[in-house]
Write a structure and sequence with these properties.
Blueprint lengths: L2 E5 L2 H13 L9 E5 L12 E5 L7 H17 L4 E5 L12 H12 L4 E4 L7 E4 L2 E4 L2 E2 L18 H6 L6 E4 L1 H4 L3 H13 L4 E4 L4 H10 L5 E4 L7 H8 L16 E5 L4 H11 L4 E3 L2 H5 L5 H10 L6 E3 L4 H11 L1 H21 L4 E5 L1 H10 L4 E9 L2 E6 L4 E6 L8 H11 L4
Helix pairs in contact: 2-3, 6-7, 11-13, 12-13, 13-14
């Protein structure tokens, strides 16, 4: 294993695994495996990039740091030369963490400073300019992320936001430097390190900017960012001859299907509305779930009654209703209850024969993957930017696990079709 990735949620892990498996057009990517948590055994020798998916985005800081360091230790033992700490392209975090504390802990363990921090993912409209994060044409703080139920992002200046989470000063490599080439970027990172900065925000508004940052990062022990930061990394290993690279074949999985949506993002809510126009949907009664009166059996009956027509079960709701529920029951209690409900539902669906499963939401996806005991997943073709097909259960189960904000309006139906046919996008 050459490259090790520590991701703070499950869908983010699949996102960067997809990026590493694709690589640059015409150059190819790496042989990638995604792991659910820190594996207990050694990786297969064919794996060139290992992606460990954790559930640390909104966990207590101490837990996030401990789990991330455990993942780093396992990856080091597999022989990794370079490490990536992957977080969301909307920099999901609170003023206390967890991005800053985890990044600094990893940097300390590796003995490095001047570490790239770049959440940019231009393909889905996430760009960084002068240290400010944009979502499409809006500042992050003016986007729907301002009302995120777990990590409301109220400041677009991610240099300032990160500085609240870290001990050391935070540097900046602006667009002018990035456009001057990888050599200029390396000089700026080294200068920031000399000034005591552990983390350095790097501007990027084009994929070419990310390729430049990737080239500059060749040989650097630690990089942090969204999945976009990995665009140029496979080329470094392929160019050096250390990696052979390969394309994961996927012929499709037939059989019953279901969709589970736990994300409350604006994108997912719109996807649900689009899907509802031609397919059966079932809204979960959250008050009943909190009172323990929502029976998984009723959900299974709904899914079974509509097999073949892409049934969708969801808990997604608008921000005001989410806020009401959180105030009534407690934010963490609502999240735990729904994660458990989706986990039990997914397990029962698969036990009943479902072999194609689409899940929306990072926390929901992680809960589902754990419930299905999928310790290692192969990376298949990309469905939409940032969302690959995942193959588990020795090829018996095909999944699409997407971040709430990702995917086209018709993502759910399109994903099920590609899980069945195995076609490339």
């Amino acid at each position: 294993m050459l490259l090790g990735v520590i991701a703070d949620d499950f869908t983010g892990a699949g996102d960067i695994a997809n990026t590493l498996a694709k690589g640059l057009p015409g150059q190819g990517g790496l042989v990638v495996t995604q792991y659910l948590g820190v594996p207990k055994v050694k990786a297969d020798r064919s794996v060139e990039a290992g992606v460990i998916s954790l559930k640390t985005r909104s966990s207590p800081v101490e837990d996030a740091v401990e789990q991330s360091l455990a993942a780093l230790e396992w990856l080091r033992n597999q022989g990794c030369e370079q490490f990536v700490f992957k977080y969301c392209s909307t920099f999901d975090s609170t003023p206390e963490g967890n991005i800053g504390p985890v990044a600094e802990a990893l940097a300390t363990a590796l003995g490095v400073k001047g570490v790239i921090a770049c959440p940019a993912f231009p393909t889905v409209g996430r760009t960084v300019h002068q240290g400010h994060l944009f979502v499409q044409d809006r500042l992050l703080s003016e986007s729907s992320m301002r009302h995120h139920p777990l990590t409301p992002m109220t400041d677009s200046d991610i240099r300032r936001w990160l500085a609240q989470q870290t001990r050391d000063p935070v540097g900046l490599v602006n667009t002018e430097i990035v456009r001057s080439g990888s050599g200029a970027v390396r000089s700026a990172l080294d200068a920031a390190a000399a000034d005591g900065a552990t983390m350095v925000i790097c501007d990027a508004s084009l994929d070419d900017d990310l390729v430049t940052l990737g080239r500059a990062a060749a040989g650097y022990r630690l990089i942090t960012g969204g999945s976009g930061i990995a665009i140029g990394l496979p080329a470094n290993f392929l160019r050096s001859g250390k990696a052979a690279g390969a394309v994961t074949a996927f012929c499709g999985v037939d059989g019953p299907e279901a969709i589970l949506a736990g994300s409350c993002s604006a994108a997912t809510r719109h996807q649900i509305a689009v899907h509802a126009a031609g397919h059966p949907i079932m809204a979960l009664d959250i008050d009943a779930a909190m009172a323990g009166r929502l029976d998984v059996g009723a959900i299974l009956e709904f899914a079974a009654a509509h097999r073949g027509n892409a049934p969708l079960i969801y808990s997604s709701d608008d921000p005001l209703e989410v806020e009401r529920l959180q105030k009534r029951y407690g934010r963490e209690k609502v999240a735990e209850t729904l994660d458990d409900l989706f986990a039990r539902t997914a397990r029962s669906l698969v036990e009943s024969g479902v072999s194609r499963l689409v899940v929306a939401g990072g926390e929901t996806s992680g809960a589902v993957a754990r419930a299905l005991d999928l310790e290692a997943l192969s990376i298949g073709p990309e469905i939409d930017p940032g969302v690959p097909i995942l193959i588990g259960g020795k090829g018996r189960i095909a999944l699409a696990l997407k971040s709430g904000n990702f995917g086209a309006p018709d993502f759910f139906a399109k994903a099920l079709k590609q899980l069945q046919q195995g076609q490339m996008k």
